[in-house]
Amino acid sequence: MSSISEVKGVGPTLAATLAGKGVDTAEKLISMPMDDLLAVPGVGPSRAKLLIENAKLIANNAGAAGNTVKKEKASKPVSEVRVKPVKAVQEKAVAPKPEETKVEEAKPEETASDKLGAGENKSRPTAKELRKEVKNRLAKLKKQKAKLKQAKKALKKAR
């Protein structure tokens, strides 16, 4: 049996809380009802799924070969990454005439997780990768905003 503290994403505080509920092994975490796991402070639906997946990995590895799995230092789950809010820009929308203004259609962006091949094992992007991706998207949005302002000025001049 594998200790609950071996499960990636379970720190000392969560381990103590789970132990108080009688869950002290990865196997017990796997069999714990989802409603009970969601009732634990700091555990939401996505984190609960992640904990159960990690517990299954630990249980399978320990049970299959009798090996102990070394616990890696867990980076913050995506749900715990804090991103500064961006002020919403509210402008009155003026619909340009199609023949006067031509705006390029936005192309779908490739995210950090999309860069992995289809056959490869997909892992969650790190907080650093997510921050970089948010920064890049904000820069693109600012450029698009500037283009829209120019188009708006051109429409005003045309009237």
TrEMBL record:
Biased composition (Basic and acidic residues): 69-83, 97-113, 121-136
Comp. bias (Basic residues): 137-159
Domain Helix-hairpin-helix DNA-binding motif class: 2-21, 35-54
Residue ranges, annotated region (Disordered): 62-159
InterPro entries the record matches: DNA_repair_Rad51/TF_NusA_a-hlx, Hlx-hairpin-Hlx_DNA-bd_motif
Protein's name in the database: Helix-hairpin-helix domain-containing protein
